[in-house]
Amino acid sequence: MFHFKIQTPQKPISDTAGKCFQMFLSFSEPPSAPQNPVIESQTATSVTLSWTHPADLGNRQDLNYRIVCQKCSGDVLFLPGWTGFNVTRVTLSRLEGGKTYEVIIYSENGVTSVSGTQAQSVSVNIVTQSLGKVMNVRKLSIGPKYLTIGWDIPSSMKSRVLQYQIRYYPRGDEASAIMKYSLTQNFTLTEFMLQTEYIFLVSLSIFWTHS
């Protein structure tokens, strides 16, 4: 996109020029792609990515980033956000263990949307760790408005646990599955349908640093 600024000169360019104008032409364009993406840290359900600014800012100072995650569910959280931020780091949480994701980082500015060209980007492939083994998932207590389940894990893993992931749904309706998280070895469900059999899948997230 071209931006023109026309100004009247403070004094004539020549005696015969009369009224003259000076035209100042400035050119701005979308930025080039982000550079040097790396995985800073990772667990079974989260990942932190960082990168460096584009080599070419497009003669503008309003650089910002947008994140697209292929195969991410609507439960995934982006910190500081998925669009409109200008720091070179983002954390994705509530990912599923043992899955492959492609995260695309777009660089944009104020003329990207009207430039007629695709925003430049760089992508990172992420394979989340398989979640750790959980044993003996069982009902602890039940009442008219609640159900509490508990589980066991190997004692050797207790010091490495970040959180537990609980996925549950009515039997035969996996498409409506809901995912929750717990820091302890139990979970209480307070919103459920009566006279309905539920399936509970529990797994754990273990601390792991990418190297």
What does this protein look like?
The protein is an all-beta fold and 211 residues long. It has 2 domains: 29-128, Immunoglobulin-like; 135-206, Immunoglobulin-like (Sandwich), CATH 2.60.40.10. It has no helices and 16 strands. The protein has a 7-stranded antiparallel beta sheet with strand order 6-8-4-3-16-13-14, with no helix packed on it. It has a 4-stranded antiparallel beta sheet with strand order 7-5-9-10, with no helix packed on it. A 3-stranded antiparallel beta sheet has the order 11-12-15, with no helix packed on it.
Question: How do the helices and strands line up, and which of them pair or pack?
Answer:
Blueprint: E1 2-7, E2 22-27, E3 35-43, E4 46-52, E5 64-70, E6 77-79, E7 83-85, E8 89-93, E9 100-108, E10 121-127, E11 135-143, E12 146-152, E13 161-170, E14 178-182, E15 186-189, E16 198-208
Antiparallel strand pairs: 1-2, 3-4, 3-16, 4-8, 5-7, 5-9, 6-8, 9-10, 11-12, 12-15, 13-14, 13-16
Pfam families: fn3
Domain Fibronectin type-III: 33-131
GO molecular function: ATP binding; transmembrane-ephrin receptor activity
